[in-house]
Amino acid sequence: MAAVDKKTFKREPQTTEDAGSRGQQQKRQRVERQKAQPTGELKIDARKLWEVLRRGDLDAEVRKVKMKEMMDMLRGHIKEVTFKHDMSRVVQTCLKYGNDEQRSEIAAELNGSYVDLSRSQYGRYILMRILKYCPKFRDEVIKSFYGHVRKLVRHKEAAHVLEECFAVYANSKQKWNLVAEFYGREFAVFKSIDGPKSLDAVLATTPQKRETAMDSLKSTVTPLLEKGTVQYSIVHRALLDYIRFADPSERQQVIETMRELVVEILHTRDGAHAAMLCLLYGSVKDRKAMLKAFKPYLQRICCEEYGYAVLVEALDCIDDTVFVNKAVLQDVCGMMSELLADQYGRRIPLFVLGGRNPHYVGSDALQVLADNDKVKALTSKKDASVRRKELTAFVSDSMTEWAAANTTKAIFDPLPSQAVNEILLRAHGDKSAAWQRVLDLVRMDVAQLGADHVLISPIANRVVTNCILAEHSVPKSADSTLPALPESNPKFGSEVLDALVDSEQLVPAACAGAFPVRALLESPVTGERAKQLLRPHKSSIEAAMKEASKKRIFEAILNIL
Are 429 and 396 spatial neighbours (Cβ–Cβ below 8 Å)? Predict the structure, then answer.
């Protein structure tokens, strides 16, 4: 037989009829293979019905009928078909659109297979639906994981279900029973009902278990760190406990391993707490590596419910303020408007100016900072007030520019008004532009604006009152490390009184019951002059008090006069 020349040989083109017949033939063969399976006919019929049931525009009454047909078809076979990708979607749709009785029937039939479902690429979605739509079976799902937690947390599919259980559905006792398995086999086997709910409580009553718990924690945490799978909140709890209770040398090893991964654990309370401890106990090299890892995600971290506290810890414990400025504060200054408009983002610049003020820093973060002070006394060499003064100098220009551009509106807004207050009192440099905006508002007609006047508004008048008080006394603060107010500050009270006199608004403001007027009368700087100006109008103030619904502020003003 002659050899075929490969270069000249040409395959005849395939006709449309051949392609169509071949495709149809393959389809028939696939259907025949499916029918040959034990549940083949069931799967084919269920998928046809599912195409109707999954439609979002299906009438409610029609859906009820179709759901009954589907349940009659699947009853007794759910466990057999649920691990296949196409049937997994069918069961998910049944859980989504079924009634409570139908959902419970599916969950009950799958009971005993929850761990296997969590490990299945397609079955885990069914288990997530059971957790969402079948509250009566949540306890059963969570209990089924007892004894398997250490293996499940390392499993690609099961870890997602375990995280959903731990972070969303488990109560405090169930959370403890899940995470306790990281502390040793004893906790995996024996689940206490009324026992301790934290490692602190365990070690307080049985301190001899510390070494065993730390060894077990290390054997669990180390592989997770090496794989970089630290995004789950149950892992964050384990990391936090290990960093808190490990020996200094072992703690340092973990911090060195995870310093590039810290940015991935900031979105939970335990993760943020663990990150704060990493910054506290870490070496200079560790701290710099962590802050560099934060840099690409800085705005997101600032605006996270828990992430901001990690940056607060960095500002509170790192002595090298020049590096902190380059790594954090320069970017903070570049997005000042966005941060000061955010519920959590504003806490970073306000912490620099106002310190550990409970109005700016959450109670959880304040507690961690207070607990860390003993360690910080050993690791930090720079005086806290000096550090604060240096940090304030870095952000002042940006914050005063923001205040000059936004004070007219921000002073009436609850959150931004706090920023205006701190900037006027504590920022360094020239604040005359921002302060002038306040004085312009003070000069406006009180009778015309009423409750919208800066001296009458319950939000704005606090800023003006605090400035008047700051002219003659140090503002009260929960943070003893705050430096003294800048000597270059304007003469707040005197200038407010001058503005009121020039605009002839002092008496209308007193007759409107303005709190800043009381502050002017009580001030040793402006008190005598304000009394002389208002005493001739005492009768007008008394008449205004009779018509007012709230009389205490009028009584206070009249008592001073």
Answer: yes
